[in-house]
Amino acid sequence: MQLLRSEKLKSLFESLSSPEGIAVINPATEEELLRLKPSLLMELDEQIEQCRIAQQDWSKLAAKERSLILKSWFQLLVEHADDIATIITLEQGKPLAESRGEVAYGASFVEWFAEEAKRAYGEVIPAPSMDRRLSTIKQPVGVCAAITPWNFPIAMITRKAAPALAAGCGMIVKPSELTPLTAIAVVDLAHQAGIPKALLSLVISEQAAEFGQLLSTDPRIKKISFTGSTRVGKILLKQASDSVKAVSMELGGNAPFIVFDDADIESAINGLIASKFRNAGQTCVCTNRLYVHESIKDEFVAVLLDKVSALQVGNGREPTITLGPVITMAAKHRLEANIDQAVQEGAVIINQPQKLPGRFMEPVLLDNIEQGMAIVQQELFGPVLPIITFENDEQVLAMANDTEYGLACYFYTDSLKRIIKFSECLDYGMVGVNEGIISTEVAPFGGIKESGIGREGAKQGMDEYLETKYVCLGGIN
User: Fold this and answer.
1) What are the extents of the domains in the chain?
2) With pLDDT > 70 as the criterion, what percentage of the chain qualifies?
3) pTM of the predicted model, to two decimals?
4) 282: pLDDT strictly greater than 70
5) pLDDT recorded at residue 37
6) So where does this one cross the membrane (predicted)?
7) Residue 229 vs residues 50, 275, 381: alpha-carbon distances, Å
8) CATH number of 7-252+450-471
9) DSSP E strands: which ranges in 348-451?
């Protein structure tokens, strides 16, 4: 970690290193960055108890006091942006430009919810009789747990922790064991800003199932927020149900990207490239399957091939690189198996991807895809793009909705009637219309169907960590 500028962060990582600990690997070079001492299951009980005690004091602070502390955290994230971006690229692999973008995105949630802390409004309700007064107040849920993934190691933490803290809650975060260094840096900056260490703490462990079970069943934890696969989300939901916890689940996706015959082709391709190949296709909202109207298919694919061939695959620390590695060799092998199966079912690879060493993969474009193929129903999570043609609106609407997932979708058209129809009829929690990048702290992020429960970001993200209490004051007369 000698690339870091901050001596505090260097010292922090040195103090946490352990020869027998969890190895953090650079996916681009396969080099070991650091070994971290893992958290112990037997220590989690005390960690939860300390968080519970700290949360009681934190919730008694005025909202403006919490807001000021969160603003200090935001400022520290901005000041350390270069170091955090470097850490992200080293342990996660995305190009440095994308890492810088993620730091800005992650910090934006801290800034946004610092302001929302002061807006947890209750309401006065007109009473049915004059001898009573009715009102509601908003109160923090209590101690929360967050389980976050490796693909956005800062943003997935701040998008959960910032609203929790703003609402007056405490939080224990279990980041992915693949990207713990970003989490350590971000939480340490929160502590420097004045957030008590017990109030916001980390669990670093490869025992994901064991810690997940404890966090989702302990009665002192009142809410669990998870971003990850639908399979794991269902397990956590079942475990949390025994104590009737509040839950937020941001789960798998299978985003369709529809290009109609009246679309601006250049704009649609730029949006597709941004949506599909950001973070090497390893985002829950990235395009998973492309639908192109048959009348423009040949023209569209010809331009797309040129754009894709310009993407540079390699180590994200190099300034010209636009596509980093996939996160593990297992992920690469899974993607290769998906491609092989699709080809066996009749798909055709239409570009000329080279076989690259290590965890690197060049983009793969698959043509001659039918809706019934297995690859259409799988969340690919990599730089593989199936291309499907369609004839009319009703056909493509049915194909786009033909999935158990419902996180994000995209379509490009110049027709106002079509914009209204498809915005309302696509069964997804988020719709990008003539836009391939839709995530922002000011809008609610989340899905429907098996893509999740709840929303993150915007004012709705704050509500996820607040309980509404109704107060009936009688005997006025």
Assistant:
1) 7-252+450-471, 255-404+408-440
2) 100
3) 0.96
4) yes
5) 94
6) none
7) 30, 19, 11
8) 3.40.605.10
9) 348-349, 364-367, 384-390, 408-412, 430-433
98, 102, 250, 441: the active-site residue: 250
> Which of 212-221 are b and which e, b meaning 16 or more Cβ less than 10 Å from the residue's Cβ?
bebbbbbeeb
DSSP state of 435: -
Predicted local distance difference test score (pLDDT) of residue 8: 84
361 Cβ neighbours under 8 A, 6+ residues apart: 280, 313, 325, 326, 332, 335, 353, 382, 383
Residue whose entry in the numeric block shows the structure tokens 């609106």: 393
Q: Report helix, strand or coil for 26.
A: coil
Q: Is the pLDDT score of 131 beyond 80?
A: yes
Tell me if the domain spanning 255-404+408-440 has CATH number 3.40.190.10: no
Q: How far apart are CA 351 and CA 364, in angstroms?
A: 7
- Spatial contact of 104 and 112, defined as CB atoms under 8 Å apart: no
Task: Give the residue-averaged pLDDT of 314-342.
Answer: 98
- State yes or no: pLDDT of 274 exceeds 80: yes
CA distance linking residue 76 with residue 172, whole number of Å: 21
d(CA 54, CA 39): 20
Would you say 144 and 59 are in contact if contact means Cβ atoms under 8 Å apart? no
- Which residues are CB-neighbours of 443 under 8 A, at least 6 positions away? 457, 458
CA–CA gap between residue 438 and residue 423 (Å, rounded): 14
Question: Tokens 């509500």 belong to which residue?
Answer: 463
7-252+450-471 matches 255-404+408-440 in fold: no
For the chain, what percentages of helix, strand and coil (3-state, to nearest 5) are there? 45, 20, 35
Q: What is the rounded distance in angstroms from the CA atom of residue 388 to the CA atom of residue 372?
A: 11
CA distance 426 to 418: 11
Q: What are phi and psi of 414, to 5 degrees?
A: -105, 0
Q: Which residues pair with 224 in a beta bridge?
A: 145, 247
250 assigned to active site: yes
